[in-house]
Design brief:
single chain, 570 residues, alpha/beta, eight-stranded mixed β-sheet, 23 helices
Length: 570
C-alpha cells in the first residue's frame, strides 16, 4: 500500500528500485546436547567452507573496488578459518562433550579472544578482532542467518538502514546501489557527505523506514525534496520518472560549464573546489570541472583497516592526488578522528561528549609520533603538486603554533636527509570553533589561509548535535550569528592579505552562495556533484550587488528571515 515518509534531503537525485534492508541480526547461541558428533562436526566444517568461500569473494571485490591493502583484512580472516590451532579444539569439544557446533565455536573462540586481548601486543590484539569477525560469519551459517555486506550487493536496490557508517558507505557500489535511506542522521553526517561524493540520492533522518519498509518493496527516493514513497502505484512511478528525466536534463546543461572559470556576472572570479575522501574521488572531481581541492579528508586512509597507514602508504595516496590535480591547489586536512569518526584499532577511552573531546588536532598533539608520520608523508609528496596543509579543530593560537612547530621539525629532518621538498607550502587552519572565529584577527597574522568548516561551526555555535535529528531545526547555516562569524573570518584574512575558503556543506547551498559571494569568500569547496550547479548559479549573480545587501542580511533576526530575503533578491 502506497505510503509517504519525509526525511532530510541529503544527496540530490531521484532513484526508483527495490528495498534492500541492511541490518545486523542477533546471533543467539544456546548449549545443546548432540548424539551424532560426526554429523555435527560435518555441519561445522560445512559452515567453515561456506564462510571461506564468502570471504574469498569479498576479498576479491575489495581488491577490485578499493585496494589490495583493504583486501588483506579478509586474507587474515581466511588464515584464521584454516588455522588448525583454532579449528581443531572446536571439533574436539563437539566430539568429547557431545555439544552443538555453535556452542563449541562460541566457547573456544571466547577463550582465544580473551587470551589475545590480555596480551600487551597490538598485533595479537588485532588477531582477537579477526577471530571475532570470523566467528560471526561461521555462526551465521550454522544458524542459517544472513549477514549482509554492502559490497556484495549485485542488483539495483535502495539500501534501507538505521544508519550507515562511513566504511559501510564507502563499500556501496554505485552501479547497483541507486540510493539509500536511513532512520537517523543529518545532512552533514558522513554517510550523507559520502552519498554526495558517490552521487547517489539519499534521504536521512527518516525515523521509521526500518520499521515500515520490507525487503523487495519498490521504493522511490527523492533526494531533492527529502521524500520517500513506499510501494508507489504506476501513476506515481511515472511522475517521478518524469521528474528524474527533468533533473537529468538540468545536469546536462550544467555539464557544459565543466571547463569554464567560475566568474560572477560582474566579472569577479572565485575559486570553486571539491571535497574528497580518497584518491578514487579524483575522477568525479575532474569530471565536474573543479578548480582545486578545498578539503582532502585524510582520515579515510585510516578507516576500514586494522592498523595505522604507514608513511609510504600515505605518501603514495597524497602523491596520487597531487599529481592528478596537475598543479591545481590541493588543501589536505591532517587527521581528523573523533566525534562520529572512530578507529577500531585506536583504543581511546569512551567520552561523554566525543564531539567536544579528544579529536582532530587535539588527538594528533597528544600522539605526536602518529602526527609526525603524516606530516613527513605530506612533505615528501609536496614536490608533486600545489600542496596546502590544513590543521583541523584549532581552538587556540598555541595549538596552531605547536602543530606548525612539529611540521617545521619534520621539514628540517627531511631536508637534512637530502629529501626534496616544495618551498611554497601554505599552512592554514579549519575555522570550526567560535573562539577561533572571534580571534580570527590574531590567527590571520600567523596562518596562510582559513577554511571555514561550517558543519562543526554551526553545531558548536548553536549547541546542537548535528547528528541528532531531534534538534536538526537548530542546524541553521543562515542564522545571522553564523553569518556574522563568517564575515569576521573573511574580513580578518583580507586585512592581512590572506584568503578564506569554506569547506563545509554550506559552501554548496544555493541560498548560502549569494550571501557568501557578497561577504567576499575567496574559495567555495563542496561535494564534486554540486560544483557545476554552483558555477551556473554564481555566473548569474553580481558580486557587487550581493555585497550591497550584506549589511541588511546581517541585521536580520532569524534564519527564516535571511532565507526569505535571499530568495527575494537572487
Amino acid at each position: 500500500m502506497k505510503q509517504s515518509i519525509s526525511g532530510i534531503a541529503a544527496s540530490n537525485g531521484i532513484a526508483i528500485a527495490k528495498a534492500f534492508r541492511l541490518e545486523n541480526p542477533e546471533l543467539m547461541v544456546e548449549q545443546k546436547k548432540v548424539d551424532n558428533t560426526t554429523s555435527e562436526i560435518e555441519r561445522f566444517q560445512a559452515a567453515v567452507t561456506k564462510a571461506a568461500a564468502e570471504l574469498e569473494i569479498i576479498k576479491e571485490k575489495t581488491a577490485q573496488q578499493i585496494s589490495d591493502k583493504e583486501a588483506a583484512i579478509f586474507g587474515a580472516h581466511l588464515l584464521v578459518l584454516s588455522d588448525p590451532e583454532l579449528v581443531g579444539p572446536i571439533k574436539e569439544r563437539i566430539n568429547n562433550d557431545h555439544i552443538n557446533a555453535e556452542f563449541a565455536l562460541q566457547e573456544t573462540t571466547d577463550m582465544f579472544i580473551g587470551m589475545f586481548e590480555a596480551m600487551d601486543n597490538e598485533y595479537m590484539k588485532e588477531r582477537a578482532a579477526d577471530i571475532r569477525d570470523v566467528r560471526k560469519r561461521v555462526l551465521s551459517h550454522l544458524l542459517g542467518v544472513t549477514i549482509q555486506n554492502p559490497s556484495m550487493i549485485s542488483e539495483e536496490v535502495i539500501v534501507i538502514a538505521e544508519d550507515l557508517t562511513p566504511s559501510d558507505t564507502v563499500q556501496l557500489n554505485a552501479e547497483f546501489v541507486k540510493g539509500f535511506i536511513t532512520d537517523i542522521g543529518g545532512r552533514t553526517s558522513h554517510s550523507a557527505i559520502l552519498a554526495r561524493t558517490l552521487e547517489i540520492p539519499a534521504v536521512v533522518g527518516a525515523q521509521t523506514v526500518m520499521s515500515s519498509i520490507d525487503n523487495g518493496v519498490v521504493v522511490i527516493v527523492d533526494g531533492l525534496e527529502g521524500l520517500i514513497i513506499v510501494d508507489p502505484d504506476e501513476v506515481t512511478i511515472q511522475a517521478f520518472q518524469q521528474k528524474k528525466r527533468a533533473y537529468d536534463v538540468q545536469k546536462a546543461e550544467w555539464a557544459k560549464l565543466k571547463d569554464e572559470p567560475t566568474v560572477s556576472s560582474d566579472g569577479q572570479h572565485v575559486e570553486l573546489a571539491a571535497n574528497i575522501g580518497t584518491p578514487k574521488d579524483l575522477t568525479g572531481v575532474l569530471e565536474h570541472g573543479s578548480e582545486g581541492i578545498g578539503l582532502y579528508r585524510t582520515e579515510f586512509l585510516y578507516m576500514g583497516r586494522e592498523t595505522f597507514p604507514t608513511e609510504d602508504e600515505q605518501f603514495d595516496a597524497y602523491t596520487k592526488v597531487l599529481k592528478g590535480m596537475n598543479g591545481k591547489p590541493t588543501v589536505v586536512r591532517t587527521l581528523d578522528i573523533g566525534g562520529d569518526k572512530e578507529l577500531t584499532y585506536l583504543d581511546l577511552p569512551k567520552e561523554m561528549n566525543p564531539f567536544l573531546g579528544l579529536r582532530a588536532i587535539r588527538l594528533c598533539l597528544e600522539m605526536p609520533e602518529l602526527f609526525r608520520t603524516q606530516l613527513r608523508a605530506l612533505l615528501r609528496a609536496s614536490v608533486h603538486g600545489n600542496l596546502k596543509i590544513m590543521f583541523p579543530m584549532i581552538a587556540t593560537i598555541e595549538e596552531f603554533r605547536q602543530a606548525k612547530g612539529l611540521l617545521e621539525e619534520e621539514k628540517t629532518k627531511l631536508l637534512n636527509e637530502g629529501v626534496e621538498l616544495s618551498d611554497s607550502i601554505e599552512v592554514g587552519i579549519m575555522v570550526e570553533i567560535p573562539s577561533t572565529a572571534i580571534l580570527a584577527d590574531v590567527f590571520a597574522k600567523e596562518v596562510d589561509f582559513f577554511s571555514i568548516g561550517t558543519n562543526d561551526l554551526i553545531q558548536y555555535t548553536m549547541a546542537a548535535d548535528r547528528m541528532n535529528e531531534r534538534v536538526s531545526y537548530l542546524y541553521q547555516p543562515f542564522n545571522p550569528a553564523i553569518l556574522r562569524l563568517v564575515k569576521m573570518v573573511i574580513d580578518a584574512s583580507h586585512r592581512e592579505g590572506k584568503w578564506t575558503g569554506m569547506c563545509g556543506e554550506m559552501a554548496g547551498d544555493e541560498i548560502a552562495i549569494p550571501i557568501l559571494l557578497g561577504l567576499g569568500l575567496d574559495e567555495f569547496s563542496m561535494s564534486a556533484s554540486s560544483l557545476l550547479k554552483a558555477r551556473s548559479q554564481i555566473s548569474k549573480l553580481s558580486k557587487a550587488e550581493m555585497a550591497s545587501h550584506t549589511e541588511h542580511i546581517l541585521a536580520l533576526a532569524t534564519s527564516d528571515e535571511v532565507e526569505a530575503y535571499v530568495k527575494e533578491i537572487s
